[in-house]
Specification:
By secondary structure, this protein is an alpha+beta fold. It has 4 helices and 8 strands, in the order E-E-H-H-E-E-E-H-E-H-E-E. Strands 1-2-3-4-5-6-8-7 form an 8-stranded mixed sheet. Helix 1 packs across helix 2. It starts with a strand and ends in a 10-residue tail after the last strand. Bound molecules: coenzyme A. Coenzyme A (COA) binds next to strand 5, helix 3 and helix 4. Coenzyme A binds next to strand 5, helix 3 and helix 4. One of its GO terms (cellular component) is cytoplasm.
Length: 193
């Protein structure tokens, strides 16, 4: 588990549980305008069908019991090599593209490096699962992680290792969207002799 220590809270990353999905939905609606926020149904669908792609950032302290969700990254898998709006509501298991639909950190935790740590942890966990012969990717390994972003947030994703593929055709709320892609390494053990 990755840990940072801003103030007296411990920040760490872990998979989101069923009890925490409603908090993630609330955070989504705080972070995005109504025409960009994903719906509660989309969130519940993603948790039900692709919980292996639903990572949370959590805060814990000695004063409070348990852990508090402070951010999340969630996605689905798609058979296409580019990001589509359909992938926001459909998960096709064992597909080559992981489409990330929501990256959010509560405002009071922003600008401390936690968002970037969360994104890197997400990519690292996927990469580790690809290298394993068990688990979610045993019937088909993802080759890339895709997402769309507005121009101003591009530097954030570039710092995490994403490459900008240019403007996306996706129509969602206001403004132009750019497609970002992160190439996943395929494990050497899957290479035949
Ligand atoms: C985007 C978000 C997850 C970033 O989290 P964060 O913890 O504030 O980001 P970090 O502190 O880890 O930033 C890491 C780097 O990315 C850059 N960055 C972070 N947010 C950025 C933004 N909104 N625009 C441009 N660059 C950004 C920072 O400048 C920082 O670089 P630096 O270390 O050289 O200063 C967070 O701001 C958020 O939840 N925003 C609201 C929802 C949102 O816009 N999500 C993305 C939708 S595509």
């Amino acid at each position: 588990m990755v840990e940072l220590v801003p103030g007296r809270e411990r920040i760490f990353f872990d998979w989101v549980t069923a009890a925490e999905v409603e908090a993630a939905i609330k955070h989504e609606h705080i972070a995005f305008p109504p025409d960009e926020a994903d719906s509660p149904e989309q969130f519940r669908y993603r948790f039900k069908h692709a919980k292996h792609l639903f990572l949370g950032a959590f805060a814990a302290s000695d004063q409070a019991k348990g852990r508090k969700l402070i951010g999340h990254v969630c996605g689905t898998q798609s058979p296409l090599t580019y990001y589509t709006k359909e992938s926001m509501s459909v998960h096709v298991a064992s597909s080559p593209s992981i489409c990330v639909h929501s990256v959010v950190l509560l405002e009071s935790y922003q600008k401390k490096g936690i968002g970037l740590q969360m994104m890197r942890e997400y990519l690292l966990r996927i990469q580790r699962q690809i290298s394993s012969s068990e688990g979610e990717y045993r019937h088909g390994k993802p080759e890339r992680v895709l997402l769309v972003t507005h121009d101003e947030v591009r530097p954030f994703y570039e710092k995490a290792g994403f490459i900008c593929k240019g403007k996306s055709d996706v129509a969602l709320g206001q403004g132009v969207w750019y497609e970002m892609s992160y190439p996943l390494k395929q494990s050497s053990s899957s290479t035949s002799k």
